[in-house]
Amino acid sequence: MQSHKRSWETDKGLLRNYLVPRFGKLHLDQITREAVLDLHQEQIANGAAPASANRVVVLLRYMFNLAIQWETPGVSDNPTRGVPLAEVNNQRERYLTEEEVQRLCKAVKESESPLLEPIISMLLLTGARKSEVLNAKWEDVALEKKRWRIPYTKSGKPRTVPLSESALEVLRSVPRVDGTEYVFPSPVTGKPFNSIYNSWNTARKKAGLEDVKIHTLRHSFASFLVNAGRNLYEVGKLLGHTQMRTIMRYSHLADETLAEAVNTVPLKKVA
Description:
- Helix content is 49%, strand content 4%.
- The protein has helices at residues 8-23, 33-45, 50-69, 98-109, 116-126, 130-134, 165-173, 197-206, 214-227, 232-239, 244-247, 251-262, and strands spanning 141-142, 147-150, 159-162.
- Strands 1-2-3 form a 3-stranded antiparallel sheet, with no helix packed on it.
- Helix 2 (33-45) runs antiparallel to helix 3 (50-69), helix 5 packs antiparallel against helix 7 (165-173) and helix 5 (116-126) packs across helix 9 (214-227).
- Mean pLDDT is 86; it is low at 1-6.
């Protein structure tokens, strides 16, 4: 199957990041429709793009269809049957303005959760995915070399993120907790947070940004880069995109930047 499926690496990432943590210890006949629905709705609530959340359900559906086709003992029904996929909105992505970023930063700084501010700051300053930031380990952060290695990504391939001075400042401000390898560990478990939704939701409402999702921060990172004159290839590399069609979602921003650029030529009509 691997040789015929272009999204093989993506599927491995979905398995590792979502399906195995949730269902890995269960027998196939113990996975219920309600459990699949809960996983899908939880992804949406935590800021996952509808298309990304849908892909997890579609992959699980395919796996069960194969199990039924292969007459796997105990598997007679597909628990993804009847689980509705989220509507994918193909309108332009939501991006934060500089003023909105300032409002958001003020709100997260005032959060009762002390780690919300550095987590949100890292999302804005690196364009990384939420799961990548929450699972960051100190062993993968090289402050002297100004880079952060992400060993497990959505594509299944590791990537290295260059760290700006602002991102380095955030990391230097985070205290290292004895007994845990994670940069942003839960004070209760010492492990990565299962969810930051409650504190995030409180902060975004306080900032008057109820329509902003966690994933909006990643899009906003790309928006700021394009508006600063960086090309789409650079933006794609920084975001870890491997498919050009994914990178092209930001092409309209580049077009708008170019349209503004041509107006800077100081040629005046001669009377």
